[in-house]
Every structure is written in C-alpha cells, then in structure tokens.
User: What shape does this take?
Amino acid sequence: MKDIVRILIAPLVWLASFSAVYGLHGLICGHGIDGTVFGVVSLPRLLLVGAYGLSILIQVGLVWALHSARLGSPSPFVRFVSRATGWVGLVSAVWALLPTVTSTYCL
Amino acid sequence: MNTLQRHRKLTAIWASEPGVRGLFSTVNHTDLGRMFLAVSFFFFLVGGVLAMLIRAQLATPQSAFAGPEIYNQIFTMHGTIMMFLFAIPTFEGLAMYLLPKLLGTRDLAFPRLSAYGFWCYVFGGAMMLVSMVLGIAPDGGWFMYPPLTGPLYSPGINTDFWLIGITFVEISAIAAAVEITVSILKYRAPGMSLDKMPIFAWYALVTSLMVLTGFPPLILGSILLELERAFGLPFFQAEFGGDSLLWQHLFWLFGHPEVYIIFLPAAGVISTILPVMCRTTLLGYGWIVASATGLAFLSFGIWVHHMFTTGIPHMGLAFFSAASTLVAVPTGVQLFAWIGTMWKGRPSLQMPMLHLLGFFFTFVIGGLTGVMVAVVPFDWQAHDTAFVTAHLHYVLFGGFVFPIMAGLYYWMPHVSGRKRFFRLGELAFALVFIGFHVTFMAMHWVGLMGQRRRISTYLPEDGWTTINLISSIGSFVLAIGIALVIVDLVLHAFAARRSRRDPWKAGTLEWAMMTPPPAYNFASLPHVNSRQPLSDDPDLTIRLARGEGYLPEPENGWRESLTVEISTGKPDFHVIYPTNTRLPIVMAAVTGVFFVSLLLKFYWTVPLAVVGVTILAWRWAWSLGHKADLPLRAIGHGFELPNATQVGQSPSWWGSVFLLTANATFFGSLLFGFAFLWTVAPSWPPPVWFSASLLELVLGLSGAGVGVVAIRQSARANAQGRDARVSLGVSFAGALAMAAAALGIVLRAPTPTEHAYGATLLVLGSYALFHALLGALMMAFLYARVVRGYTSVRRHAEFPVVTLWIDYLAGMSLLVLAVAHLPGLLG
Assistant: This one.
C-alpha cells in the first residue's frame, strides 16, 4: 500500500492545497477581509501569495522525498511513476495557483 | 486428477444454478458482468431513442412534435440515462467481467456485493423508467439545478424520482468501486507486481478510486435537495440562509470527475486493444499510468469551470481556467503514447481498430473544444449554447462509445466463443461515424450562432432551420448505424461459427482459458512474470488446465482463491468465497422499499425497510467465517497460506477502508457545504446559534475515547486468549454515549425549516447518530460472534474491521461536536 500512497500523494496534496487556497480566497472575499501589512502590502494578497508559496514548498518537499533513496520506492517502476506524479503535483501547484500573484482577488 | 475431472469438479463448485433461477442467485463475476452489460446497453438504446425524439423535435422550427413539458422530460431523461444508467454501469459490467480474468484469479473480492450492486442498479433504473412511462419523469435537466428543481418551481414528483432513483443507482456504483479497488489491489495472480498489472487494471483502479470520491458529493446534494423538497429544510433557498450555488458546487464536484470516470475505463480499453491491433506492445506503460493518475486528480480540481457564468470573482475563475488547461497535458501524453504504439507496430485494420480510429478523430476534436471552453471569455459566450452540448458529445461519444464499441468487437469472441463472419460491422461503423459527425459538427455551428441548450423549439427567422435539419438527419443515420451494430452482434452471438481461442493473438490472461469462459476462469492460477504472460508462454493455457498452477486441487467443495501482497504480488492469504445465494437480490429489493417509501412519502414503511436491511446485513456477515481454526492451505509450488479470516488485514478490512474513504468524502462534502453557506450565502449569521452543552460535549468526548480504547482492548484480549466480551461491552457503551451526544444536536438544533444553519446541524447530528448506532450494532455483532465461537486467537480478522469503523466514528463525532458546539462556546 505504501507504493500506492507514493503514487497518489503529490497530486492528492495538490488537490487539497488547491481547494484550500480557493477556500481561503472565498473566506477573504466572503468576509470582506482587507487591510495592509506594514502599510504597503495588501493583507489578502499576502495571505494568498503566502498560501501559494506554501503549496509550492510542500510539493517541492514531496518531489525531493520521492527522489530520495530513503523515502522513494524500492521498485523501479513505482519510483518512476511516483516521481512523475510528484512532478504533476508540483507543476500543477505552480500553474493553477499562479492567479494569486497575477489576478485581482475579489472583483 | 486429470484435466477433464478437474474441469468437472470445478464447474460443479463454481457454476450458477441452472436456468432462469441462476440469474437471481448468481454471484459469479462473469454472469454479473454480462448481466450488467446487457442492462446497460438496454438503457443505451432507451437513451438513444430519446435522443431521436429530441432531434425529431428540433428538426424543424415551431415543431408540434412534443410540447415543452414532455420535451423537458425527454432531454432530462436522455442525459440522465446516458450518464447514470449507461456509461457508469458499462464500466462496472466490463470491469466485473474482465478483471478477474485479466488479473489471473477466479472471482472478484466480494461476489455478493457485485450482485447486490447489480440489483440496486436494476431496481433504481426501473424506477426511472416507470416515471417515464407514467409521464412524470424528471424534467429539470440532467444536472437538476435548484431553484428550478426546488419545491417552489417543481412541486410534482418528477424531481423526486431523479433524486431518489439516482441515489439508489449510486449504491451500485459505490459497491462496484469498492469491489473493483480491493480486487485489483489484492486479488491478482502470484507474481503480478504493480509493474506487471494489465494496463486496464490500472485504469479501472484509478476510475474506482474516483467513483469513491466523486459520487459522495452528489449523493449528499441529492439528499439535501430531497430534504428541502420533502421537509422544507432550506439548504438552497437564499432567503433562509441557503444558496442554490451550493448545489452547483456539490453537483460539479461529482460532475466533472464523472467525465473522466467515463473516459478513463475507455482509455483502458484502448490501451489494451491498440497494441494487439498493431501487433506490438504498449509504448510508455509507466507514462500512461502516471498520466491516468494525474488526470484523475486534475479532474477533481476543475469543477468550477462549469460555473464560470455564476459571478465568481476573477481570481477564482483564473484558478479553474488554469487548472482546466492543465488537463490537456496528461491527456496528450496518453494520446501520444497511443500514436507511438501505432507508429512502432503494424496496424491491422480490423473491426476494433476502426472504432479506435473513430475514437482518435472524434476525441481530439472534443478535447480541443474543451480547451476552448476552459478559457473564460470564450466560455462566457458559448455557455449554455448548443456548442457545449456538441463539445460534451464529442468527448463522451468519442471518448467512451467508440472505444466501448471497439471493446465489444474485441471481446465478443471471448464472451461467445464465436468468430464474426458477416461484414455488417464495417458498414455500421461508417454510418455511426458519419452520422455522429454530421449531427454534432452541425450542433457546434448552430451553437456558435446562438442556439441555446434545452430549448424545445425556435423560430424560422432565427436562421437555425437548415443546420438543425442537417443535424437531425445525421442523428438518424447514426441511429441506423447503432441498429446495425446490434444486428451484427446478435448475428455474431447466435449464428457465427466457433472461434479458436485467442483469435487476436493477444498476450493478456483473459485469453488463457476456454471461450466462452468457464465459471471458475482458471483450473489453476498462473504465476505471472511479465505484462504479456500469454505471449511469453503460449502453452500457459494448457498448463493451467492441467493443474500446473496454484490451487489446482479443489478442497471441501470450496470456492477458493488467493490474495497477494499489493506491491510485490507475493501470495499472502487463502480465500474461501460464498456460494450462490438470493440474499443480494432480496436485500436490494428491501433497499428499494426504503427508497420507494421515501418517494411516495409512505414514511411508516421506512423504518420497516431499515430493520429489514439490518437483519439481512447481519445474516450476510454472519454467514462468513468458521467456528474452528483452519490449517494453512497448501496452494502449490511450495506455498502454504493462512486463511483470510485469520489475518489482520483481511479483504473485509480492505473493503472497509475504501468504503470509509467514500464515507469520509461524503462527510467532508457536508462540512464543505456548511462552511460554504456560512461564508458565501446571504442571510447569515442565523437568527439563533446552537447553545453549547457541557454535558453533551463530555458525553461525546468520553464516548469517543472509551470506544476507541476499549475496542483495542477487546482485540488484545482476544489475541491473548482472554475474554473479550467485557471490553466489547465497554466499547458498546462508548458508542451509545456518542449516539446520545449526537441526539442532543438533532433534538436541540435551531428550527431547521427556518434557516439553513439549523438544517445543516440537523443533518450533521443525524449523520453522527446514524454512525454511532451503526458502530453499536457492529459491536453487538462482534459480541455475538465471540459468544458463538466464531473468533479465536487465530481467527481475529473481525476485530480490526470493527476497530476501523469505531475509529472513524470517534474522529467524525469529535468534528461534529466541534462544529455544533464551538460557535456557542465562543459566544
């Protein structure tokens, strides 16, 4: 079962983080969270970009773990597939949550 | 024992009852697979006839063929039947028929569950058909958006048929998904490690996991909408704290993965057949597995792309637009792997290959228009037009029907043992292909000209007349093509001459047996060393029939098989299956009484049905296991295995894991709904919050703690040969304490008809209460098993199963308590 988990973990975490960032965005807009930090940085933007960065960091950690000898699978096939799905998770996190940086948030 | 004696003995053990009686008591996967496929193709024909009625209506402007009321029922039932009663059950039927054969085993993990799922599907589907015959079929579109489908705008019984009937049918999907998942992970031939699994099994595994996590949001949505319609709980009514957009979220959390739930098994068929048709092996097996997995997850992250026109902020739109474009990547990887397979092989233009080419041409167009509608500005223009209808038909017909037709022609010699001899199939394919493209290419065009979906008629001055007429003519050509396919298949089944085994020279294990297949599949189970075991060893079939594989000698008249360790394929447990029984059909019928009672609002029969299902489920589980320890079973080749009732992670444990996965998704969707309403819905905060109760909190918390600890103590006591009953009694008390805490929420929730907050608490409390009572029932069952001698130090498999459910109950109860009591505690 560990090998199945290795294959599923990165896209599963992507799905959770994607949904969480969308949920955070909903909370910010639904509850009218606003304001600035240090007088210059918009709080909603900071929260969203922070969550985006955290999602990427987690995915980088997973890719690293799946490539490591200690946590990667002993089976060459599972190692290949799990690394491929690991990269799916990382690329998906970078691309699908990029709007946190580029788009207006509550318009 | 010689080969013939072995065949006769195994047939006597595994065969269904003779004649029609056998249909009602069979639990054999070959029978049930064929029955599933027969019924699903019947529904395909019904859905097809409805499509013809739609095209007849739209062929001319201001048509008087059907009035708007009937037309609404026709298009709703067309979509509903094709999605829920044809596509998903076809996957289930195909997987049930094929998987044990492809995996080199004798049956699926839970044969009675297959049968129960099948009968739920038949009874649920029959409910839908009855509604149509009576002229009271659902009429709110296949995605049933409230407020149109709410009690105010759809007061009749039509919508209830959909909500209740489809939920009934979905039991079948969940049952099949649990069955297929456990079967693929555990019920394989020895030696079949993950890298040697047939590619169809990978696709079926991914699809089944998607069903387990994709269907629960829709089941939840259906329950909430039915509660609103029947009892006035305002989940989707904005003036009472509800929000109709909640339905769209829940529906599309199911609905978008549904597209891939339909496509992925078809892709499995393609990946299996294409290399055989090209006389080569599949290119990029590992890439395909990774792509299918990635695609499955991505498909869950794009549900909002069906809601681009609902006023969601730009950033939300951009998230889902970006994720939607990503889907093209793993899909493209698979397409290029298939093209590469054709490139490296020598394609042979036989019937299955024709349909595969039809798939390529059609599905690529559907995929490209999919990328178009993933782009928000384009979607805003095309949304709810015939363009989208055309797009989805290119994806679903191209991505499912063509591959399934290829599969039909490919595996018909396996099912019938006969070889096709007429050339009708080629003509049928030509008509289907031309008819389809004429119909739906025209529909793209008229959609871009502004024709909306679901309209019952239009005016001559709209300028859509000629295109609609062309589309309708195309659809009738398509229908003639489908009719010819049926004629071809009927001729094949009854008039064709006997075929030799493995007519395509395929290398997968389903061909390593007689055709039509015997009830037991393999006289002895193979050892697998590669993905193409039959190509590697052409004599494998004969050697297995001679008993040179595993489990060659039947023992005690048992239906036997074995399981393997998930990753390595090393044999781990010996399994004894249940035999033919009418229990599944009876239980499905009693389950049907429950749903029909809700539909007709005969609420006094609901508890009777619940009691009936409980008694039958008790009997179902009771018939498993033994009163004496079983010795290790020698399976051949020097292996001796313990029986599955004498291990920690038995098949039932694995089944519970995946059933709880679906259950947890349901619960997660409910929490999401609560958070969504709280955050987004108007008319919040509610007029009154739930008042926290220290007594209920203490009761719930202590019940959860005691339940979890005591069930483990009982397992430990059993393992040490001590009396487990006292600990079981304590755990039972813990479950009752959790039930009491949940009952407090149910009884004290703010008036549920006045605000969605109270309604949601009522559902959360009821969910926790149901599980607490279920946990108590399981504990009572285990207690009775201990008393009657079904457990021992070695026979301990039932303890981990109940522990799993009690752990879930405890964790879920704590979350429900927190959600209900925290607002009151925080003031």
